[in-house]
Structures are given as structure tokens and as C-alpha cells.
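Anyone have C-alpha cells for Lipid/polyisoprenoid-binding YceI-like domain-containing protein? Sequence:
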Amino acid sequence: MTENSSGRTKKIIAIAVAVLAIIIAAALIIPRIYAANESSDVAAPSLSSSTSATATTDAATDINGAWTISTGSYAGYRVNEVLNGADVTVVGRTETVTGDAAVDNGTLNSGSITVDLASVTTDSDRRDNYFRTQAIDTTANPNAVFTITEPASLEGLGSDPIDVTVQGDLTINGVTQPASATLQVAVVNGEINAAGSIPITWSDFGVEAPNLGFVAVEDAGTLEFLVVLAK
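Reply: yep, here.
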């Protein structure tokens, strides 16, 4: 081999190595950039983020009586998926939430939350359409409903949030399963605010998490809500 041909071979090898390094770097970096752009930055509901700086609290509010879910309430879901090789967190939200609660002697005796699933939206119309027509047939089963089945103490409820665990039945896709909701509850502007979440496994409700090759959704997710209850 001549000196010139040897030099050309070394250059070709160097170029090939450089191209391979670029491809490997792109394979590692691009999914992370994609995930950063696509992953939702919507925070989970909490009372610290839900009340405005001008809101006033009222520890003297009588919490006993009948309460109805009012404006300012919302609900939805949070789920992790792998989209085009990138880990993405998806959050769906709707403000179409109804329900009520009954408190007697400082105890939450009954209540329910109904969420209109057909109105839940994410940042993708395509994803939302799949959720409404294939994951869950929202025409046949339009609502998710959580109904309290056991009394829960609200002892100490006032302007400072307290942690409350509520047992109930959760109905999704026409299937009802026992569920446990973890809540932060406080009295704000004479209303009861409750921010909470319910861990769920989609397959328990007959919902098959999609795995379409370019996207795979985890079977475990979280239902989230913030409800404002008024008398």
C-alpha cells in the first residue's frame, strides 16, 4: 500500500468514526430533547398552588352540612408513556366536574365526584380521540365516578390543610373497583377545598393501555382532582 493510499484510508476511517459518534450522540440526546418538549409540566393538584395570593382563609366556617362542587374545580389523569423512545408524562384535564359531600359532627359521611371523561383533554388531539373512542368508549361510559363508602374524620379542619384518606368505589368504563383517595383539605374563603389523587391500574377497569410501537403507555396511572365545595 502506498503512502497516499494509506493516508486516504486513515482519513476514511476517521470520518467514519466521527459520523458514528454523531449518530450515537444523536440517538442519546434527541430522545431527551423530545421528552423535554413533549412531557407535561402541569403540576399535580395541591392546595398551596390552587389558592391565590389574595385568598383569605376562614377557620371559623361551619364545615357541617351539605356541600356541592362549585366553579374552580377540575379533574383528570396523569400517566407515563414511552413516545418515540422518550419517556413522557401525559396529563389530561377537564373542568366538567360535579358532585357533593355531606359533613356531620366533623365527619365526612358521604359524597361523590363525577368527571366527564369525554371532555378530558391533553396536548394532543390524536391522543384524546384514542382515549375517548378506543381506550374508553365515552359514548357508552361517559363518566368516571368516585363514591365515598366509609366515613372520614375532618377533625382539625380549618385554614391550614390537613391530610385525609377517603375510602370509596371508583367506576370507570362501566367497571367498579374499591379505591383509596389521598386528600389535602382546607377551608378557603368559606369553602372547602380538597386536592387529591387516586392511584389506578387501567387494566383493572377493562382499559387496555396502548402499545402501538411508537408509543407505549404504562398500565399504572393516577387520577387527580381539585374540588371546591360550596354550601
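The two ends are 92 Å apart (CA to CA).
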